[in-house]
Amino acid sequence: MDTASPLRLSLHSNMRSEMPALKSGSDRNILKVVLGDLLFDTWYGSFYPDELVGGGRQEVDRLYVCRWCFRYSKELMPYMAHVKLCRSKLGAPPGQLIYEKDCYSIYEVNGEDHPLFCQNLSLFAKLFLDNKSVCFDLATFNYYLLVYTYPAAVSSSPGEASTTHQVVGFFSKEKMSWDNNNLACILVFPPWQRKGLGKILMGVSYELSKREGRIGGPEKPLSDLGRRGYLSFWSSTIARFILAAPARKPFTIKDVSEDTFILADDVIAALKEMNVLNPRQRAGGAMGVNKVKVREWARGNGVDLAPVVDAEGFLEQ
Questions:
Q1: What is the C-alpha to C-alpha distance for residues 307 and 28, in angstroms, rounded to an integer?
Q2: ∠ at Cα 62 (161, 55), nearest 5°?
Q3: Which of 131, 193, 220, 233 could be stapled to 202 by a disulfide with Cβ–Cβ 3.0 to 4.6 Å?
Q4: What are 39's strand-pairing partners?
Q5: pTM of this prediction?
């Protein structure tokens, strides 16, 4: 595989000086990726090494990526040789299992302990992320893998042994954020998008905030796609809080924020997006929330009163 050389372990530290600048999706240096038995288009360029992409002077038509460890090759035969012997194939993903619910689980991976895996994951993710850069300083980040476990072991491709799991997305988080960011980058891989899986990742990030006792949110600015996704998540979470609140008991933005661990500014943005604020201001300039409108919004958007992430699914550390 192309990731065999020591360069891959130190790539992030010298990437800015050695890698070509990437501007936009029109500067894609890899056109398609093969992940397991799936072939799909990339969206943007990534910082793969010069020997793979020719210093940005050429486009790679197809990149083969191991579905378990994310090592990569532009040649089919080395890729097939690797997947037959990949040590990550039959075991659990790297890191520590922290959450498990139905067929999905979350593994926390320390970037310092697993630098090659996290680097390969970041390079792959950059193919589908625009204004969010991959994490260059691996040691200062944790990565949270969203893993789907098959009901029974399956063989995904001819010649491959049966497997039990598939990483379908992840988010990264700074170990120490002075801005209380609970998420840096987030991605659900394209074949698994539009299944509500992004909300699982967002829900886990906020549950971790609760356990740390710090109100926070994603690193900003958000992309247009990211903002739409977060507004949907914030709105659903806030709707659950409002609909579960006792009748006629007043609450403030601060109350919502302290219960959900969503920043007050994000609570306000979500309420405006939901269009559930009463037009008439109350004494002191406060605005009320129309609970009937909240219930209608929740019904119209298919919001379940049960949260996306079950707090009981977290394994006690």
A1: 38
A2: 125
A3: 233
A4: 34
A5: 0.87
